[in-house]
Specification:
With 246 residues, this protein is of the alpha/beta class. It has one domain: Class I glutamine amidotransferase (GATase) domain (Rossmann fold), CATH 3.40.50. It is built from 6 helices and 12 strands. β11 and β12 form a beta hairpin. The longest helix has 16 residues. It is globular. The protein starts with a strand and ends in a 6-residue tail after the last helix. The structure holds glutamine.
């Protein structure tokens, strides 16, 4: 049976920091290499997103200004997005997108209301948390590596599992040692880079959740990830040996 997944890319023209769009390319390629069709839908400002036939939803990172615009648009679709994630729909959210998953993003005097899909909230701190990052996570056999740049500090509710533990860098708040969130088929993370090209384990985790929901099982054929894993390993070892050059 030929398989096909619909990937919904939310607001690519606004939320596309540090190559976040590369996450979509990675998902599409990893599907294509396995003979699975990838149908990519870009939802731009002015479009009304529909999640009823989506298999993977991606939301990237952006500045506070861009987040404000996106937030307003997405709040109008809050119920539909909640129904999608409650049904096990896969959602990958990076940085600004990750912050929007929570109840609120407090920016000094102003508070942006979030989607409340995950029990977390974010407030803005100083200094910005910037630099390369590596975390250990159950979703990936390899450490997850990438880059972070955020003023927000994200605080997870008591029942929320982090995506992983910080091995190098800052993560959710620079203090707790936790990074990102993992709930049902939702992954939230501060990791840009983009995230997926160097972290094929995360890409396949998302794809597997989408295939299970759509077809009942993932049945994921392994790929030759030699180059991806070499890139991941070089970065991980560079960071862990503290020889990082910014
Ligand atoms: N505007 C948010 C912050 O600074 C997110 C930035 C980003 O997506 N890199 O915390």
């Amino acid at each position: 049976m030929s398989r096909s997944l619909a990937i919904c890319h939310l607001f690519p023209e606004l939320l596309n920091l540090y190559g976040d769009g590369g996450n979509i390319l990675t998902l599409a390629k990893r599907l294509e290499w396995r003979g699975i069709e990838a149908r990519i839908r870009e939802v731009r400002v002015g479009d009304v997103p529909s999640f009823s036939d989506a298999d993977i939803v991606f939301i990237g990172g952006g500045s506070d200004r861009e987040q404000r615009i996106v937030c307003e648009k997405l709040l109008a679709q809050k119920a539909e997005l909640k129904a999608y994630t409650e049904d096990g729909g896969a959602l990958l959210a990076v940085c600004g997108g990750y912050q929007l998953l929570g109840h609120s993003y407090v920016m000094g005097e102003e508070t942006l209301e979030g989607l409340s899909l995950v029990d977390l909230y974010t407030d803005r701190g100083s200094p910005r948390l910037i630099g390369n990052i590596a975390i250990e996570s159950d979703v990936s056999p390899q450490p997850i590596v990438g880059y972070e740049n955020h003023g927000g500090r994200t605080h997870l509710g008591p029942g929320v599992t982090p995506l992983g533990r910080v091995a190098f860098g800052h993560g959710n708040d620079g203090e707790s040692g936790s990074e990102g969130c993992l709930e049902k088929s939702i992954v939230g993370t501060y990791i840009h880079g983009p995230l997926l090209p160097k972290n094929p384990g995360v890409a396949d985790w998302v794809i597997a959740r989408a295939l299970e929901r759509r077809y009942g099982s993932a049945d994921l054929e392994p790929l030759d990830d030699e180059e991806e894993l070499a890139a991941n390993e070089v970065m991980y070892h560079r960071l862990m040996s503290h020889q990082e050059k910014d």
